[in-house]
C-alpha cells in the first residue's frame, strides 16, 4: 500500500481487499491525508486477529508520532508493527524481495516528501516443452536450463540453452509521485517506466497557486511523463475546485496523449 488516509479501511472493504495480504505500507510524507488512517487500520487488523508483521516505510518522524498511539490503543495486538525509517531526500533502495525492488524518489514539497519506484525483477526464461521432450531432458535438469545452462546429452553432444528457452516475460515498473511541485530531477529515476502516477492538483491557470503550495499542474505532470519517456500517465490529487476533471485531462493530453484520470477504486492494467 502507498499512503494511508482516513478513508482507507472503507475503500479496502468496498474493494474486497484482504487485510492479511497487506505486508508493507509506504508513506510518501507526513501530511494527514497520507497517514492519518494508519492507527485505525492497525487497530482493526488487531481486532481481526492478524498475525503477520506489518512493515511501515516512512520518514523517521512517523514512528515518533505513531508509537504513543500504538502503545495506548494497540497494546494487545497479535502482530508486530515494524518501522523502517527512510531519508526522503535520497534516491535509494528501500525494500526488496525475490520479485520486486522499491526505490525512493526525492520530491519537492512543503515537508520532506518522496515518491516510490516499483521495479519487478526479471523473470526466468520460458521453457520450450517440445524441445525438452525431443531431447528427453530429465526433469531435474530443467531448473538448470532455466538458469542458463546448456544441456549435454548422454552421447556428449552440447545442446545450446537457446534451443530450450524463449526470453522471459518483460518485467514491469511503476512510479508514484505525489505530492510534489514540478521537479525535473526525478526524470532520470523514472525514465521509461510502464506506468507513472503524478499529481496534477491544478490547471495552468492556477500555476502561481501551484508554486505557492508546491504542487503541480496537469501540464507539468504531462511534461514530466513526456521527458521521461514513460508509457502511460495517470494524474490525480485534484483540487476540490475542479468538479469537472476533464479540464485537467484535456490539459495533460495536449502534452502527453496516453494520460488517464485517477478515480476512487478505479483499476488500471498495464
In short:
The protein has 10 helices and 14 strands. The protein has helices at residues 8-14, 32-35, 38-47, 61-73, 129-134, 139-146, 187-190, 207-213, 218-227, 246-253; strands at 24-26, 54-58, 81-85, 93-96, 100-106, 114-120, 126-127, 151-152, 158-159, 165-166, 173-177, 195-199, 233-236, 259-261.
Can you offer a commentary on this structure?
The chain is α/β, with parallel strands linked by helices and 270 residues long. The chain has 3 domains: 1-85; 87-123 and 169-270, Metallo-beta-lactamase, Chain A, CATH 3.60.15.10; 126-166, no CATH class. The chain is built from 10 helices and 14 strands. The chain has helices at residues 8-14, 32-35, 38-47, 61-73, 129-134, 139-146, 187-190, 207-213, 218-227, 246-253, and strands spanning 24-26, 54-58, 81-85, 93-96, 100-106, 114-120, 126-127, 151-152, 158-159, 165-166, 173-177, 195-199, 233-236, 259-261. The chain has a 7-stranded mixed beta sheet, with helices on one face. The protein has a 3-stranded parallel beta sheet with strand order 1-2-3, with helices on one face. Strand 5 and strand 6 (114-120) form a beta hairpin. It is globular and about 75 Å long. 29% of the residues are buried.
The beta-strand count equals 14
User: Mean pLDDT, rounded to whole units?
Assistant: 96
**Count of DSSP helices?**
10
Per CATH, the class of the largest domain reads Alpha Beta
Report the radius of gyration as a whole number of Å: 23 Å
Amino acid at each position: 500500500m502507498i499512503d494511508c488516509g482516513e478513508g482507507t479501511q472503507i475503500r479496502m472493504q468496498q474493494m474486497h481487499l484482504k487485510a492479511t495480504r497487506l505486508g508493507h505500507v509506504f508513506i510518501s510524507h507526513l501530511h494527514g491525508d497520507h497517514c492519518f488512517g494508519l492507527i485505525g487500520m492497525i487497530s482493526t487488523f488487531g481486532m481481526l486477529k492478524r498475525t503477520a508483521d506489518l512493515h511501515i516505510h516512512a520518514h523517521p518522524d512517523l514512528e515518533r508520532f505513531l508509537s504513543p498511539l500504538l502503545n495506548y490503543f494497540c497494546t494487545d495486538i497479535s502482530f508486530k508493527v515494524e518501522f523502517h525509517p527512510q531519508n526522503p531526500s535520497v534516491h535509494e533502495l528501500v525494500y526488496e524481495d525475490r520479485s520486486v525492488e522499491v526505490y525512493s524518489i526525492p520530491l519537492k514539497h512543503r515537508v520532506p516528501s518522496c515518491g516510490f519506484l516499483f521495479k519487478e525483477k526479471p523473470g526466468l526464461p520460458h521453457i520450450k516443452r517440445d524441445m525438452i521432450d525431443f531431447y528427453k531432458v530429465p526433469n531435474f535438469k530443467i531448473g538448470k536450463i532455466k538458469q542458463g545452462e546448456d544441456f549435454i546429452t548422454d552421447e556428449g553432444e552440447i545442446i545450446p540453452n537457446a534451443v530450450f528457452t524463449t526470453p522471459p516475460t518483460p518485467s514491469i515498473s511503476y512510479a508514484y509521485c505525489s505530492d510534489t511541485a514540478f521537479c525535473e530531477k526525478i526524470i532520470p529515476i523514472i525514465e521509461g517506466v510502464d506506468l507513472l502516477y503524478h499529481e496534477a492538483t491544478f490547471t495552468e491557470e492556477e500555476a502561481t497557486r501551484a508554486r505557492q503550495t508546491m504542487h503541480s499542474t496537469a501540464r507539468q505532470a504531462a511534461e514530466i511523463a513526456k521527458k521521461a519517456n514513460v508509457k502511460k500517465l495517470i494524474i490525480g490529487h485534484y483540487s476540490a475546485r475542479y468538479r469537472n476533471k476533464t479540464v485537467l485531462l484535456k490539459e495533460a493530453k495536449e502534452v502527453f496523449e496516453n494520460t488517464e484520470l485517477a478515480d476512487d477504486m478505479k483499476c488500471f492494467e498495464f
